[in-house]
Amino acid sequence: MRYEREHKTQTRDRIVRNTARKLRAEGLKGPGVASVMKASGLTVGGFYKHFRSKHELFAEAIAQAFSDSEKVYSSLQDVPREDRWKEVVRRYLSTEHCDHPDTGCPVAALAPEIARAKLTVRKQISSLMKERVERWVEFMPGATAPERERNFFVIFSAMAGAVSIARLLTEPAEREKVLVSVRDHLLHSF
Amino acid sequence: MRYEREHKTQTRDRIVRNTARKLRAEGLKGPGVASVMKASGLTVGGFYKHFRSKHELFAEAIAQAFSDSEKVYSSLQDVPREDRWKEVVRRYLSTEHCDHPDTGCPVAALAPEIARAKLTVRKQISSLMKERVERWVEFMPGATAPERERNFFVIFSAMAGAVSIARLLTEPAEREKVLVSVRDHLLHSF
DNA sequence: TGTACATCAGTGAACGCGCGTTCACTGATGTAC
DNA sequence: TGTACATCAGTGAACGCGCGTTCACTGATGTAC
Question: Against a cut of 0.90, is the pTM above it?
Fold first, then answer.
């Protein structure tokens, strides 16, 4: 079977996207090569036609997870500029997000594992984080730019922490209590 | 060689403590049986004289990590009751804590991985978390008990999130900015 | 008091399994003649 | 127009290594006689 021009690129992209989800669901040491290929309807052997190594794929997949989670950004066009951060807080601290790590924020799902990764991966993520800060800071509450940056760190830390903690609790009522407490606090203190 | 009465218990305890540190440093899938035995000056073979399986040890070690991190509690006797939570915030968000995951808070070091663990482990951690809440709530800021509980969730989420995020950044100045921003915010908004 | 035996924490080699990687092969389609 | 060959994404078996677990063995000391 011979394929159309774009076929290989599309397959590669599909593998990266599926891996981005699997990593958030199963952790950095969760999915294996066979598993990510199967998730894309392929078999192990073909893997090295697309990637030099498992690490190459994983690095791309983490980056993909970061840009996935930037999609919220574009879906916020209708919301007034000054209310956008509140909408982000509501969505980030929703039961929906808490229950679906695989399509959610990679920081809440993977931060400690990324912190232990090789320096090259960490550097890459560090700069993705920097980009994220720059993109979001303008929507944050606060009178001056440095103040908005500090508030970004506070809001983002509180949200990521809350979701990480909620996810390790087993009782839905407890999980909800954490999410709601932090959500209410953030929405009322800026 | 035959050993004194307490020898075996002490050895077992030493393995658990070393594993508690290794898990926070290397993650739940980091250290192997050989590695934790070596860290205690022993060889692989003896492992199953102390534990039924690697999972049994790991479950105990996570619990150990939780009770390790409760030691802060007892070192706070000199601090006036109403200032204790501030001292906890300062220590939790210190460079010292950020740079030493292995002796630090297991939530900041392992939360997402624990969230993915087997239900039995998660249930155990869930109840350890509940105990932690109960122990700390009385020192939290707030007029009423429910308010103090909500504030505990906010403060703890923000601290754990900040340290997790700081740890994945590569530049010390950036790490510090996150820690300081969150610390100042928490100390000034309750 | 002396000797043979039991005890048991710890050793180190071996086994089996999962996983990353390699490799010879497949087979449908485009191209050369 | 028809036929032989090249291409190349994908297949599936095999290899090697690490790791959890098992097991026969060690050797120092306590105990029985």
Answer: yes
Bin B27: left if φ > 0, else alpha if -120 < ψ < 50, else beta: left
Residues of chain A positioned with their CB less than 8 A from the CB of B122: 168, 170
* Distance (Å, whole) CA B65 – CA B54: 16
Specify the amino acid at residue B175.
R
Q: Using the CA of A33, give the nucleotide whose C1' is nearest.
A: C20
- DSSP-derived letter for residue A169 is -
- What's the Cα-to-Cα distance from B143 to each of A151, B68, B85, B138, B187, rounded to whole Å? 25, 30, 14, 10, 17
Quick one: B5-189 is in which CATH superfamily?
Tetracycline Repressor, domain 2 (1.10.357.10)
Asked if A119 and B29 come within 8 Å (Cβ–Cβ), the reply is no
pLDDT digits (tens, 9 = 90+) for B135-161: 999 999 999 999 999 999 999 999 999
Q: What is the pLDDT of residue B69?
A: 83
Q: Which residue of B has its CA nearest to A27?
A: B113
Distance A27 CA to C22 C1' (A): 27
Residues of B within 8 A of A190 (CB-CB) are none
- Written as one letter, the residue type at B112 is P
